[in-house]
Amino acid sequence: METVLRVLLIVSSLSIMLLILLHRGKGGGLSNLFGGGVSSSLGGSSTVERNLDRFTIASIIVWVVCIVGIGLLHRT
Description:
Helix content: over 70%
Largest sheet: none
Order of helices and strands: HHH
Strand content: under 5%
Number of helices: 3
Distance between the termini: 14 Å
Shape: elongated
Low-confidence stretches: none
């Protein structure tokens, strides 16, 4: 069980880093490399940005659950 949680922790950590880098910040971010700059001129938040937010939040939830799970396993 601990091995599964550790693997999920590593995968979710890497995905969080990638997804955060893909977000459009003040400078545009890496999302402009993949065509995000074209849709940003339209204004507002697009469907792609909302889905990116959802994936980021889901990855963060998985990360937190893995941290808590590993902590509980080590406590007992």
